[in-house]
Design goal:
With 387 residues, this protein is α+β, with helices and mostly antiparallel strands. The chain is 33% helix and 20% strand. It has a 6-stranded mixed beta sheet with strand order 4-3-2-1-5-6, sandwiched between helices. Strands 7-8-11 form a 3-stranded antiparallel beta sheet, covered by helices on one side. It has a 3-stranded antiparallel beta sheet with strand order 14-17-18. Bound molecules: glycine and manganese (II) ion (2 copies). The site of one manganese (II) ion (MN) has 4 residues, from loops.
Length: 387
């Protein structure tokens, strides 16, 4: 058993979060109109506000009350998780079938003149049925209210992401020798395909305490490395290949995200060596630009300038990064012109890449937490290229 898998972390106390949410009610509606209540339907937002992680649940937060509804499968879990999160007296739990849950929510909202819905998570049909149910109230679309609060992580959240990142680092260290065997030209690992290597990495993360992989692990070798989001397939990894490995772990709900690109069998040469150098420099400069008070777009610009100076501006066709937390992609977006201001506790990735179909692709990615005067990387695997 490795260090990363041992020792439980203390539960995250979420009890202050409902107050912070209610403080936003004054301007949560369209044109900064107030809402009297918010119906939270996004599962990561429900978890963040209540500690409840079940797959089915609804949370209605009014100015002075909060009601979580779920079904009988989650009777015990919801009570345990709310207790652990310090909100068992702040959030009433109502268990029942779909209709009973809806009626409980309508009853809990009886004083609210306007009820906000999470517009980015509500389908057209459910908006219509909520409209019929909350007939006595005005429904208002809201956007990014809880997500905005989630952007700054507390110490418990950062500790979980650090644990996820450590699991991922250790897992990669455990399976990387298999690439070295390919590089040495040994017959014994001749059939190491992208899929097999990805499966080995996923398994190694689970063995070290990951709940699951943070997203579908990417292993892209040879010409596939030039496809930024290739899915691992049956291509056997070969000596001389660049291999992009983009993956992460989940620990207690929180995710990590890291990319390393290797060159199998020794240091790269020719144009591929230049691509490695440029991406390494872009990522290094991008990481150095991360500090509180800067706009996310300036981190993107720092990376993009290095790549443009090398003549490959048009070969870096994705954003530089994104926030990470309960979701693998959350705010802030780190792309051209992104205006979100980084704050201590913001967790984001820096992941520039250059993709040349005729040569290969390279991406390097770390997950960073913004500190009081800069940043700290949660992902720490060395950036040595040759395996
Ligand atoms: N593969 C997910 C990401 O790096 O954003
Ligand atoms: Mn990634
Ligand atoms: Mn990423």
């Amino acid at each position: 058993m490795t260090v990363s898998a041992t020792a439980r972390l203390a539960p995250i106390d979420v009890s202050g979060r409902l107050t912070r949410l209610r403080d936003l009610f004054e301007s949560a509606g369209p044109d900064d109109e107030p809402v009297d209540a918010l119906l939270v339907t996004t599962s990561a937002n429900i978890r963040w506000l209540s500690g409840f992680s079940g797959s089915a649940g609804l949370l209605l937060v009014t100015r002075d009350h909060a009601t979580l509804t779920t079904d009988g499968r989650y009777r015990t879990q919801s009570s345990e998780q709310l207790q652990a999160a310090g909100v068992s007296s702040a959030i009433e739990v109502r268990i029942g079938g779909v209709q009973a849950q809806r009626q409980a929510l309508v009853a809990a909202s009886s004083e609210a003149k306007s009820v906000g819905l999470e517009a980015d998570n509500v389908t057209w049909s459910s908006q219509r049925s909520w409209g019929e149910l909350f007939a006595a109230a005005q429904l208002a679309p809201t956007r990014g209210v809880v997500e905005g609060l989630r952007m700054v992580k507390d110490a418990g959240e950062v500790a979980r992401m650090e644990r996820a990142a450590a699991i991922a680092d250790e897992a990669l260290a455990a399976v990387l020798p298999r690439l070295a065997v390919v590089g040495a030209g040994s017959r014994s690992d001749r059939e190491l395909t992208e899929s097999r290597f990805a499966a080995a990495l996923d398994h190694a993360m689970r063995e070290r305490g990951a709940e699951e992989s943070a997203f579908e692990t990417i292993v892209a070798s040879g010409e596939n490395s030039a496809k930024p989001h290739a899915r691992p397939g049956g291509r056997p990894i070969q000596p001389g290949d660049p291999v992009v490995v983009d993956f992460g772990a989940v620990f207690d709900g929180y995710r990590s995200d890291m990319t390393r690109t290797f060159c199998v069998g020794g240091a790269p040469s020719g144009d591929l060596a230049t691509v490695f150098d440029v991406v390494e420099e872009a990522q290094r400069v991008g990481v150095l630009s991360v500090r509180p008070g800067v706009a996310a777009g300036s981190v993107d610009e720092a990376c993009r300038d290095v790549i443009a100076a090398a003549g490959w501006a048009d070969r870096f066709e994705h954003g530089t990064g994104h926030g990470v937390g309960l979701d693998i992609h959350e705010g802030p977006s780190v792309g051209p012109g992104a205006t979100a201001i980084l704050l201590p506790g913001t967790v984001l990735t820096v992941e520039p890449g250059v993709y040349l179909p005729e040569t290969g692709g390279v991406r390097i990615e770390d997950t960073l937490v913004v500190t009081q005067n800069g940043s700290r990387s949660l992902t720490r695997f060395p950036k040595e290229v040759a395996v």
